[in-house]
User: Fold this.
Amino acid sequence: MLTLKNVTKTYPGVIALNNVSMEFAGGEVHALLGENGAGKTTLIKIISGAIQPDSGTIAFGDQIYRHMTPNLAIQNGVAVMYQDINLVRPLSVAENIFLGRRFGKIFNRARIYEMARKLFTEYGFDLDPSISVSKLSAANLQLVEICKAISNDARIMIMDEPTAPLATNEVDLLFSIIRRLKEKGVTVIYISHRLDEVFSIADRISILRDGCYVSTIKTAETNRAQLINKMVGRTLSESFPPEPTNWGKLSSRRIILLVTASRRSILNCTAARYWALLG
Ligand SMILES: Nc1ncnc2c1ncn2[C@@H]1O[C@H](COP(=O)(O)OP(=O)(O)OP(=O)(O)O)[C@@H](O)[C@H]1O
Ligand SMILES: [Mg+2]
Assistant:
């Protein structure tokens, strides 16, 4: 239902996305994985019309666009939950959810509170619609964003590292909401560096590396080692020496020499971060 074809985006000196083609199906949770700088945020900004690609197309169903704008993206059902949630702080929860929408000629606060309450009951949220959003926790700010998307009839909900500011029990709540969205046929595009989360919530996983599309795999048909290989572009045996270097015994001069000696050493430093993830 959402298809990107040959999308390229360059910045001075950087190819952020290099001829990327991918598909997102209706009602799936689709995780986007890749190292820092792989192009994940650039991709979602292109889908939401926040930036324009240099070339390529974005299609919602059979409607194909060369230039997406934020309004067109919203009309096509796209909602984005950014890490720094951008709500209007002095306004209440309900006012933020229904901001910019008209309900008759007169602004009817009681009516929007009632509509918000109905939405919270349906989704099992414990929120007071009249409270100012400036008083909300990160988790509750996310709930408001999600309610905004639901009440706008979003069909594609994009979440960029949503669990970064959340506690464990809040992550559980977010996941139950994601499952509910999925049941309603909403596509969730889920960006995270946390493989555990991806395994517990995603139906399919796509990997980007250095701005290039690598592959899309069903979660049930992959494992951590395979995903990490695809993200860093080498097999683990190539990336990791069997005996870890005992850095503590080396002089700092020797460490500098070792680290700068070859490109491969530097790549291994990057790979070491994923070794930690492997556990
Ligand atoms: N506005 C910009 N100007 C210049 N370069 C940019 C800009 N935005 C992104 N880039 C570059 O494009 C590449 C892809 O960046 P992007 O933010 O999409 O990566 P990412 O996969 O989201 O990384 P992270 O996991 O760190 O969020 C990086 O090399 C980044 O430095
Ligand atoms: Mg990013």
Notes: The domain at 2-232 is CATH 3.40.50.300 (Rossmann fold). The mean pLDDT is 85.
